[in-house]
Amino acid sequence: MTDNARDRERLENLWRSLSLQDREWLRRRLLPRGEARADAGGPLLSESECRAAERWFEARCSRARTARDAQARLRLWCIFLLLRYGGLRLVEIFALRAEDWDWTQGCVHVRGRAGRGVPLPLPLVRRLRDRLAEPAFLAVLARPVCDDSLVRRSLAACGRACGLPSGLLSARSLRRNRERELLRLGLSPEQVDGFLGRNLRGAADGNLTPPAVLKALRERIQGDDISFRSSARNTFAGRVLQCAPCGLACRVELLTPGGILLTAIITETSRRQLDVREGCRLVAQVKAPQVHLAGDGCPPPPEATHFGGEVESLRSDARWREVLLRLADGSRVCILQDGVHQPFLCVGLEVRAWFGALSVILAPE
């Protein structure tokens, strides 16, 4: 056993010996100033609890029996995502209109005294845009008003279904959760206040977030995600572990935050133009038709990138089948298949997928 492992074991034993009051005191003393402020209002949700709540709202949408019920459930799902990732107040969500959504920039423009632009994670914006673009759900953006008591009852029902303590899942706790996440991303308390609409004096246009604050928020929350402006559905950001030239081509290994080791083959000219080197950060794009499921009759090449995920949704027409996989880190991968003679799939099934090294497009982050 290494010294680090022994120290870790001693700390774990010490932590178990402490009372709940002592644990809370020690946790607050060790937290950075901003995170301690976010935790001051009581217990917060863990990342796994947030994911479980999100899956619950999505599952309710898929079980709707009528178009009216589907719209109502989709509206609640949309409200949950704005609470979860936007940190909006309920009154701000109820005041949103279709024109307040900026799909190009991936922002929601909040009106009123705390008017501001709220950047959302671009994978989330893509999901919302895809769902809300369906004809049956156009009214969700045009009429987002919802009864706040219905939202609170839905959050309480979700908490019970996920086995959470009573009252833990609420609009206020989701807002504080987002505050803590942004602080952990490296944003200052002042920048987080700008995101949450604190100490801002807005106007009717709802877009008075200071430019420097909005720029920092977009860099941390969205990054330079060029896939949002292209037809590629799948984007992986990561750090280069290895860059090995091999004649006219170059083999690049990229490690994503979710733990996927991605291999790409690019030309030596492209490597020089992008200044690809070990340690630099890149964005990898793969078009949906280039991603394959294991066992679909297409054998993977030697340098393929393999990963696993859970089937989140299935859509098909006379020719094509679209499969959306949720990976372990919460990100999603879209697969577009020729719908003829494809293996059976169902929502919730764990599957393996892959794409070839020559299918990857690299760009600077």
From TrEMBL:
SUPFAM superfamilies: DNA breaking-rejoining enzymes, MOP-like. One of its GO terms (biological process) is molybdate ion transport. The keyword DNA-binding does not apply. The keyword Protease does not apply. GO terms for molecular function: DNA binding. It comes from the Bacteria. InterPro entries: DNA_brk_join_enz, Integrase-like_cat_sf, Mo/tungstate-bd_C_term_dom, Mop_domain, Transp-assoc_OB_typ1. Keywords: DNA recombination, Molybdenum. NCBIfam families: Mop. This is TOBE domain-containing protein.
